[in-house]
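Let us work through a complete example step by step.
Step 1: write down the sequence.
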Amino acid sequence: MGNDSFIRFSYVLLMGFGFPIMRYMSIHFDTLNNNAVRFLSGGLLFVFICILKYRTELLKLLREPSIILYLLLLAIFMTGNMYFFINGLKYTSALAGSIFGIMSMPLAVIMAAIFFQDEREKVKQKSFYIGSVLSVIGSLIFVIYSNKTGGGNDFITGSLFLGTAIFIQSIQNLFVKKVAKKLNAIVISASTATLSGLVYLLLASNTGVIYQLQDVSSGLLIGLIFAGMYGMLTGMLFAFYIVQKQGVVVFNIIQLTVPLSTAFIGYFTLGETISIYQGFGAAIVIVGCVISLRKKSNGD
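Step 2: predict the structure and record it as tokens.
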């Protein structure tokens, strides 16, 4: 369980850096170009790792072609998810993007419990509901007091984008859990990121926005490439690994703590301020997550 806890902590910390990075890049790049470069750079990195260390995993795709269909569907969901998510970040903030993840929790937990027996077992304890309710309340307090400075129409528009992304993500995680029973998380990440990147590249080419990259400095473009690698390693590989090893329910509880690290890091990198009320909400989130996760570990 020590390793599981380390993975959870690492995911929360790394995602805390990830949201400010995505927010910064969303301001400087068109969404299609942004996602095309990020997904392809991260996806090709994963493909390289798979060729070196996971060739036997790739053979499974030849033996079970049905897996390819699931990977294609997963890539489609990821493409839609990130299109709406990056647009949402552009109109709101890094903190708002991370906090909106709480909206997916009830839907994701319900859907996971409907389709998977092991997930149903995880939501039978009262402590899970107590901890989850506390976490949601704390996160909502965070939302309410983090948007005092946001522009009205822009924030509403961004919220609609983020809400759509979260809905797609809740469905996407079910496919991740399904495929994760047969493939290693890094193979899933490699195919999903690369396929999504190719879709975005095609869309950017057809719409002509890809030519905007000619006007971008080489330093900023290189930064986007490395941001893509970082984002795929943390936001995709870590997320897929947690869903694979610990389940959809645990993953969604962990998501509730990401806004805390995002707020702390966003304060120093983007100047996004934190109020005393947000600190109060953060404390509630932490208590709720500890209650939910600790009981879940004892019941495993």
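Step 3: interpret the result. Residues 77 and 172 are 6 Å apart (CA to CA).
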